[in-house]
Amino acid sequence: MLEHALKGSKKYWLWLGFLGIFIITGAYFYLQQLKIGLGITGMSRDVSWAFYIANFTFLVGVAASAVTIVLPYYWHNHKVYGKMTILGEFLAVSAVTMCLLFVVIDMGQPMRVFNVLRYPTPNSILFYDVIVLNGYFILNLICAWTALHSYYKDSSYPSWLKPVIFLAIIWAPFIHIVTAFIYQGLPGRHYWLSAIMAPKFLVSAFSSGPALLIILAALIKKVANFDIGEKAFETLGKTMTYFYLAFLGFYLFEVFTSFYSGIPGHKAPFIYLFVGYEGHAEWVPFMWTAVILAIISLIILLNPRTRKNQTLLVLAAFTVFFSAYIEKGIGLVTGGFTPNPFETVTPYRPTLPEVLISLGVWSTGFLVLTVLYKITIEVDKRKNLAVKLKG
Amino acid sequence: MAIKRRDFLKILGVGGISTIGVAGIGSLYSRAEVEVVPHTPPQGALKAKRWGMVIDVRKCIESGEECIKNCEAIQACHLTHNVPNIPDKKKEIKWIWIDNFEHAFPDLKDQKIVEHLSRFPFFLLCNHCENPPCVRVCPTKATFKRSDGIVMMDFHRCIGCRFCMAGCPYGSRSFNWIDPRPYLTKVNPEFPTRKPGVVEKCLFCYERLDEGKIPACVEACKSQALIFGDLNDPESEINKILKERVSLTRKPELGTNPSVFYVI
């Protein structure tokens, strides 16, 4: 099947070339980072995790969200997701690829990465994260590739795949729960020290993941004539809506806890993020953008008539995706480190190399995704053609 | 009633996951007993069950402004351990430094005590906690707790993930964002210099203890504001001071149990 990735229209190659430019730029700056050290980023003694880890965290959610499609399809035999499932699984593969890249890029000594396996440390959450992420990557690759291959061979998937699929379904929430545990068990980090962190991560993921899938499905419907079907769009829209509502609710619960209790340390990160703290307001415009995006998405999603309109649904998907990205991909990590343990503010802003390296990782993810989707679409096209000829 | 294969696999899956879960939870909650690495000091070394430090801030302020400004304890530590002098505050490395009361004890703000204490300088360094969160989170055991209570840091095993920095509630750890070597005015060949990409912090002069010497900062402090000793020995000087005077530790509510005490 891989050969389908090697033949394509001019547009396909142009798109890959476009991504290639960002990948090469990112790789160049990463080599600089290897030479100079993480000093070329905007991180500091006080904000010691930032853009890379934030992107990693967000993408773990995107990867985990595949379960919102795989579970209804395999567990409840929800046929509407027939075409969608493989797209969801491949999105997970590409998202985990980006996650792993972001983790390696964030390491001060990447050549020592195998120390995690050489000295296994079960009391470190990072140890479990490495296991669940790599496991999930392999599980999804096996599931999607085998299912697609069976489709290609015009047979139903082999019976041994079923337990693997169920394992992948059970596994999915854990990749995000474990990632949340990285944050939520740390003493002295008020913004993260909350039991609702893991559930909040899950609902945020289960809304932003389907949002990205809606966008991608609309895109390939337009450029490749591959339609997942109106019903699938509708159901995805509902999934996104309910989980997004839960996410907004959870976020407001956190605000309540912090401000009703009145504990200064717990209020401080919210104050820093939304109105600024001691004259520092770096992320205020971003957080309010997220709020405005959230309001727009609510207006569209809460009314079934507007939600069922595909153009508006795609717009809502964009607003959900970007508001979640700002909250998790920016606010979460800087909010956790600001104010610092001395209750002072060390402002963080990503540097240009940092942004370009991240863009390179995202482009790599989209390259993987494009190739996998291209194969899926071609297999589907050939099938349809065969059905037509036989019919 | 026969169990269908599908149901059987489901049960098997759920069972397997819960077993792993229970085992995992078990190891996560044994936090009070972060694995202690046994340590046998060489002959002639200073020995203790749990090393600790008392900082007498009153002595410190009595020694005068000049002494605080050019603190010899800090200089001695940084010279001994090749701690670079990086002017950029965001990338700086520090093992021991002075900050004010509000920053050292942020949870005690808005109290009457602040007015009284804000004029005192406070030495900040790694607390060598009894329950070190940094050790709990390190994925490679690059940072570990020794049986004498010293929280150690292996520069050569550290992968630079900085989880320990996120875990430390005291801001006691520094990361080498850039090559530290050009920022050394004088190199002490007895102690390793660092590469970019590793975390470092105060190590209670474990290397000097092995030679029978007290930590460099304690030795260099002219006003004898720093006192070092065994917290588990009732006869030790630090225990005598702690018995007589009121002491503070940083963020006691977190349960980390610092081994560094402040007496006023």
From TrEMBL, chain A:
It is a multi-pass membrane protein. The keyword Secreted does not apply. It comes from the Bacteria. One of its GO terms (cellular component) is plasma membrane. InterPro entries: DsrP-like, NrfD-like. It is found in: Cell membrane. The chain crosses the membrane at residues 12-31, 51-74, 86-105, 125-148, 160-182, 202-220, 241-263, 283-302, 314-335, 355-373. Keywords: Cell membrane, Membrane, Transmembrane, Transmembrane helix. Belongs to the NrfD family. NCBIfam families: DsrP. This is Menaquinol oxidoreductase. It comes from Caldimicrobium thiodismutans. The lineage of its organism: Bacteria, Pseudomonadati, Thermodesulfobacteriota, Thermodesulfobacteria, Thermodesulfobacteriales.
UniProtKB/TrEMBL annotation, chain B:
One of its GO terms (molecular function) is 4 iron, 4 sulfur cluster binding. Coiled coil: none annotated. Keywords: 4Fe-4S, Iron, Iron-sulfur, Metal-binding. The keyword Iron applies. Signal peptide: none annotated. PROSITE patterns: 4FE4S_FER_1, 4FE4S_FER_2, TAT. Pfam families: Fer4_11. The keyword Secreted does not apply. CDD domains: PsrB. Residues 149-178 form the 4Fe-4S ferredoxin-type domain. InterPro entries: 4Fe4S_Fe-S-bd (IPR017896), 4Fe4S_Fe_S_CS (IPR017900), DsrO-like (IPR054822), ET_IronSulfur_Cluster-Binding (IPR050954), TAT_signal (IPR006311). It comes from the Bacteria. PANTHER family: PROTEIN NRFC (PTHR43177), PROTEIN NRFC HOMOLOG (PTHR43177:SF3). This is 4Fe-4S ferredoxin.
